[in-house]
Specification:
heterodimer, A: mainly alpha, 13 helices, 2 strands, about 0% strand, globular, B: D-Maltodextrin-Binding Protein, domain 2, D-Maltodextrin-Binding Protein, domain 2, 2 domains, six-stranded mixed sheet, four-stranded mixed sheet
Chain lengths: ~290, ~425
């Protein structure tokens, strides 16, 4: 009796989280995979089995290709700005020189993280506005009016304008994670380096970077998977336009499902997004060997 | 003791979780939630697409009036704007959450909703109460009737025309264009007169592109081929006219300036109302919106005729909008429908909002200004009406044309490439 109860209790403690995960994560994933073999619309609940046709269609979908390229651009730029730039920013903020104003700066950098993405997108649509936007006015002010353009209405600049907004919003969050990691580095390492006569840059590469390696991998994981799933920013700012130039995988999926009324194909795209994200995550976990260090 | 306590807490958590999930379903079953037997109170779910003024207040007031006259009725109202409404109603109609009474566009949009089998047939209601139904223009029911069954009651009528700034035209001695070639001349002379973008459009709103394309195709392509192509099961889109039509659209966008692909229709309307832009393709429903912003002397002209076009050269693009009922709607919802489509409501509505209503004799000097009356005459005089392009064709086809239109304006694609994409999409749909 007693033995049985001891085994039962830990299982019961796990049960609520397992239930939540099961109902809201695992069952939908399986169901979504199942749905991608059917042709059905939102309006009718009858599903027609069509086998793997939608997966074949994925291969020739031009919009999907553009979307995927945009997601990759998103990921590359995000890794450069949010991971590397944020690490430099965090190091500067933790430097002795900035000790006094660091708390204020940290708050300033973190504020965008706390603002709702819809608000930020609306704010940036004013900044990018071709008629009265801050960005074009600023370029005019410093004599670069030749560079001013309708940022969101130009097929080549639209996606970069969207990406730029994301960087502005997320860099504070990643910086915060790095600051925490840097604060955990034992001070004697830096003291020893000082005695050996190492400069700031040397200390950064030989102490800070290796010591925050773990955090860096987590941050790369967060930004890359985040970039593969990005939806709100392009949806609100450009809705994928002009044309399909700023479409991302999630926006494409959403439009297939809820606007073009092709739920089966949208499910296939969702499956693709899941697979791509899972592969990226697996590669990173493998490469970084997270958890094995300790 | 502690173990028992924690076990109990867990049990409570799990049951809470499970009941929370199951009660979700219970809440969405429509009829049981609508009628509360205890107090004989009837609740009606009312969903429309005007969270903006002046219509929001208008409907709030009408709801209050109806509730006062029928003390046993409570109306729950919800509203979201245009594009969001299209998305939300699609989701609602796919499950049991469909509101009792809701607004709908005509033709393919209505047909899609009807195909869910959750929309109430109104044939009997219309036949039984001719005192009410005979007030509404019979011609406007067409867009809500499928296989001889009517599913919606038209309430507003609308048409699309070029609005022009009369004073700018007079100052520069420019005539209203009759043909498309005239139109290009007009735009050129306006450019010479210093209006760098004589024509503008908010191309981020894809529907605005579809309105242009719909009209252009209607003018150029043989009507029989158009009917065939707009019907998904027989469509081919092989006619040369589509390429020519897209070329015309591209030519027009070249007058719109770089700005157009980055702004929405509302911004374009504001530019027109501020007198910055002399011509804008707009709906009659927008007359009041323009007049509220600035006092531009508005004139109208229909989309000019296109040489060599095979369609009716004087047709007007436009379609009614109206109301639908859900199959699970209580009888009180029918009464509410009659109330909000009554001649009295319509007269007040046009006075408050400026949009033209679908009631016979519903537009007079009393509730509309001279500009609106002029618009109403154009609407009644048009030789035929062409429906909104995005409502006329399958959304997959419309999307390629609309996004293609954006790409045309930014010169990322050619008309022939768009038509080819459409042909491929059509094949997949069949």
């Amino acid at each position: 009796m007693i033995l049985k109860r001891i085994k039962l209790v830990p299982v019961l403690f796990l049960l609520p989280s397992l239930l939540f995960l099961g109902v809201f994560v695992y069952i939908p994933i399986v169901q979504n995979f199942f749905n991608s073999f059917f042709d059905f619309s939102v309006f009718s609940q009858t599903k027609e089995f069509i086998g793997s046709r939608y997966f074949k269609e994925l291969l020739e979908d031009k919009i999907l290709l553009t979307s995927f390229a945009n997601n990759i651009k998103y990921a590359v730029i995000s890794v450069i700005f949010q991971v590397f730039f944020a690490l430099i920013l965090a190091t500067i903020l933790e430097d002795k020189l900035f000790r006094r104003i660091a708390p204020t700066l940290r708050v300033i950098y973190f504020i965008p993280v706390m603002i709702s993405i819809s608000v930020i997108a609306l704010l940036f649509s004013f900044i990018y506005n071709p008629q009265m936007g801050l960005l074009n006015s600023f370029l005019e002010l410093i004599g670069l009016e030749s560079l001013a353009k309708p940022w969101l209405g130009n097929a080549t600049t639209a996606i970069y304008a969207v990406i730029a907004m994301s960087q502005w919003q997320s860099v504070g969050f990643i910086t915060m994670l790095f600051i925490v990691a840097i604060q955990k580095i034992p001070k004697d390492l830096y003291e020893a380096a000082d005695i050996d006569g190492a400069g700031r840059i040397r200390k950064f590469f030989n102490i800070t970077v290796p010591q925050v390696r773990e955090t860096m991998f987590v941050n790369v994981l967060i930004t890359v998977t985040g970039s593969m799933l990005v939806f709100n920013e392009p949806y609100i700012l450009t809705n994928g336009g002009p044309g399909i130039s700023s479409m991302t995988l999630s926006v494409h999926m959403y439009q297939l499902g809820f606007i073009k009324d092709n739920m089966g194909y949208a499910s296939a795209v969702a499956t693709l997004i899941f697979v791509v994200t899972a592969i990226f995550a697996l590669i990173q976990i493998k490469v970084s060997g997270t958890g094995k260090d300790e | 003791m502690k173990k028992i306590l924690s076990l109990l807490t867990l049990l409570v958590l799990v049951t809470l979780f499970l009941t929370a999930c199951s009660s979700d379903k219970g809440a969405t079953t429509p009829t049981s939630a609508n009628v509360n037997n205890n107090e004989d109170m009837v609740e009606i779910d009312f969903f429309h697409r005007w969270p903006n003024e002046p219509r929001k207040s208008f409907y709030d007031q009408k709801i209050a009036e109806f509730e006062e006259a029928n003390p046993n009725v409570k109306i729950n109202v919800d509203s979201v704007l245009n594009d969001s409404y299209k998305e939300k109603i699609r989701v609602l109609v796919s499950n049991d959450g469909l509101p009792d009474i809701f607004s709908s566009w005509s033709h393919s949009f209505a047909e899609n909703l009807v195909s869910s089998d959750r929309v109430l047939s109104l044939n009997e209601i219309i036949k039984e109460d001719t005192d009410w139904s005979s007030n509404i223009m019979e011609t406007q029911f067409e867009g809500f009737t499928f296989d001889d069954t009517t599913y919606g009651v038209p309430f507003t009528v609308d048409g699309k025309a070029f609005f022009y700034n009369k004073s700018i035209f007079e100052e520069n001695n420019i005539q209203v264009p009759k043909t498309y070639d005239d139109m290009i001349e007009t735009l050129d002379s306006l450019q010479k007169a210093g209006y760098e973008t004589p024509l503008v459009e908010g191309l981020t709103n894809t529907w605005a592109i579809s309105h242009y394309l719909g009209t252009i195709f209607q003018r150029i392509v043989d009507p029989e081929i158009l009917v065939q192509d707009y019907n998904t099961s027989t469509s081919k889109f092989t006619d040369e006219g589509y390429i020519k039509g897209l070329e015309i659209f591209q030519e027009l966008t070249s007058y719109m300036g770089e700005v157009s692909t980055a702004i929405d229709h509302e911004a374009a309307r504001n530019m027109f109302a501020a007198g910055e832009v002399p011509i804008l393709y707009m709906q009659f429903a927008e007359v009041k919106l323009v007049q509220d912003i600035g006092d531009v002397d508005i004139g109208f002209f229909n989309f000019p005729s296109i040489d060599g076009g095979k369609g009716d050269q004087t047709a007007l693009t436009g379609a009614p909008e109206g109301w639908m009922l859900s199959k699970s709607a209580p009888p009180e919802a029918v009464e509410f429908l009659k109330f909000i489509t009554s001649p009295e409501t319509a007269m007040e509505f046009t006075k408050a909002d400026g949009q033209l209503n679908a009631i016979k004799g519903g537009i007079t000097k009393e509730n509309a200004n001279s500009t609106s009356l002029e618009a109403y005459d154009i609407l009644l005089d048009s030789s035929s009406t062409a429906v909104w392009f995005d409502n006329a064709v399958d959304i997959n086809v419309a999307d390629i044309f609309m996004r293609g239109g954006q790409s045309l304006a930014t010169k990322q694609i050619t008309p022939a490439e768009i038509v080819k994409e459409v042909q491929q999409a059509v094949q997949k749909l069949q």
